[in-house]
Amino acid sequence: MTAVFAYRSPTQRTELLSLLADSGEQARVMAGGTDLLIDMRNGVAHPELVVNLKNVEGFSAMSWSDTEGLIIRPGVTVNDVLFDARIREDYPLLIACARDLASHQIRNRATVIGNVVNASPCSDMAPALLCLGARAVISSKAGQRVVPFTEFFKGVKRTVLRPGEILEEVIVPATAAAGRGAYCKLKRIKGHDLGIVGVAVMRQNGSLRLGISSCAPTPVLVADLSSTAPVDTIVAAARGAVNPIDDLRCTREYREHMVEVFVRRVLKEVA
Amino acid sequence: MKISVTVNGHLYERNVEDHWTLLRFLRESVGLTGTKEGCAAGECGACTVALNGKTVNSCLVLAAEADGGAVDTIEGEAHDGELSSIQAAFTRNHAVQCGFCTGGMIMSIKDLLRRNPKPSVDEIKAAIEGNFCRCTGYVQIIEAVLDASGQLTPATKGELEYV
Q1: What is the set of domains in chain B, with CATH numbers?
Q2: Quick check: is A57 in a domain?
Q3: A102/B42 Cβ within 8 A
Q4: A111: closest CA of chain B, how far (Å)
Q5: For a FRET experiment, which of A99, A162, B45, B121 has its CA 20 to 30 Å from that of B142?
């Protein structure tokens, strides 16, 4: 690590939010650190203060509520989700997406909330959370606000979070627990490469939702599809919703083609 | 800042800089150089250690985050000059060439066998997807894991297809 910074690890939520309110843009919060430490090493991020979230009391717990559903907090790792028997039962789409995220060591450290706050277009957890209709509970010293994930992402690595705010809870609604889901992801090498195209599908009560990663500045949701619609109609809706780029991994045309291939594939899995 | 970390059962109380990684603490402060820095970006797995019982890339953990915790490294494998069963299986099956990936590889495999004492070849591949080997080749490493888990027979040895 070439960057130099100070480190704080508050244990109380009020202490954390005051610290962030006082530090403004000089501070970056760190959950798993698996993106932030790399960004600092590469000189992309250069905070003066790194604030560890993991030791804040209550932040590493998941909880369930019959009315709200599943609540994921900042210290919950991707492997915490992957090995949770109840999530496996109720939200298999979360498991399908978590399984495809990096390697075992990274998943032991990387958090679900960090993966969405990082706001990479190729986030693995975002397609699932979009399909499941999840909401973001955003907290700061001044109070709390709730934002649906459809409004959370603002661009490449940009979200609605303002300085001093954290994404404190992800709420996955209880009403999404009965749905069927599937995820297909294209990458060059399993384990560490960024995704090239990812397509998640959620089928429930006659409706279909698609969550697509790596094909636009933000993860994309295609909602309000009928599960009885012709496959070609659903493919056309997906292709109309994405706007991929050419990069060193592949061309725009290839990404568009693979969106179609994957939409057809995930639809078969939930047929 | 001052941190207290138990490494392979021994308590170390050391001063570290806030920006030091756990990897740097292990290599430069504790002096355990079996944990390697390869990519320094969480891709190659040469820096894999167990932190509080879970494998992590020590290049992506701050030393300060390990304060009060317990770390197991490759140096904790052998006891009184005796190789661990995984290490012994690696030597029997020619699963070590240059050795740079071996420490991290063994830490991942130890974690796999703790969770799953009789892994299939596919389960072994999934468990080491975060550990790169660039010279030995994965066939010998997978054979060593089959051996260490009592699943390598004369019939299966040499039968692994392209990995």
Answers
A1: 2-76 (3.10.20.30), 85-148 (1.10.150.120)
A2: no
A3: yes
A4: 13
A5: A99
Contact present, A47 and A27 (Cβ < 8 Å): yes
- Nearest C-alpha in A relative to B112: A104
**pLDDT tens-digit series, residues A178-234:** 889 999 999 877 666 778 899 999 999 999 999 999 999 999 999 999 999 999 999
Between the alpha carbon of residue B21 and those of residues A14, B57, B152, the distances in Å are: 27, 10, 38
pLDDT in tens, B78-116: 999 999 999 999 999 999 999 999 999 999 999 999 999
Burial of B104 (0-12, 13-18, 19+ CB in 10 A): buried
- Are residues A202 and A96 part of one domain? no
Provide the token pair at A50.
Answer: 């790194």
Question: CB-based contacts of A220: which residues, under 8 Å, 6+ apart?
Answer: A130, A211, A212, A213, A241, A242
**B105 contacts chain A (CB < 8 A):** no
Residue carrying the six token digits 């960004």: A39
Query: Which run of H or E residues covers position A170?
Result: strand A166-173
Residues of A in contact with B72 (CB under 8 A): none
Q: Which of A240, A232, A237, A231 is nearest to A271 (CA)?
A: A231
Q: Which residue of B has its CA nearest to A109?
A: B56
Are both A132 and A104 inside the same structural domain?
yes
Residue A245 burial (C-beta neighbours within 10 Å; 0-12, 13-18, 19+): middle
* Contact status, residue A124 vs residue A185, Cβ threshold 8 Å: yes
Instruction: Choose among B41, B62, B111: nearest Cβ to A7.
Output: B62
Is A19 within 8 Å of A8 (Cβ atoms)? yes
| Last residue in a domain, options A114, A146, A176 | A176
- Per the structure, the complete domain to which residue A25 belongs is given by 6-52
**Torsion angle in degrees (nearest 10) through CA of A79, A191, A40, A162:** -50
Per the structure, the count of domains in chain A is 3
Regarding whether A135 and A43 lie in a shared domain, the answer is no
Which pLDDT value is given to residue B161?
A: 60
- CA-based torsion, A81, A85, A86, A89: positive or negative: positive
* Pairing state between β A197-204 and A143-148: unpaired
**Tokens 């969480």 belong to which residue?**
B42
DSSP A113-168: HHHHHTT-TT-SHHHHHHHTT-EEEEEETTEEEEEEGGGTEEETTEES--TT-EEE
Residue A240 contacts by C-beta under 8 Å, 6 or more apart in sequence? none
Q: What is the CATH number of the domain that holds A144?
A: 3.30.465.10
Shared-domain flag, residues A76 and A23: no
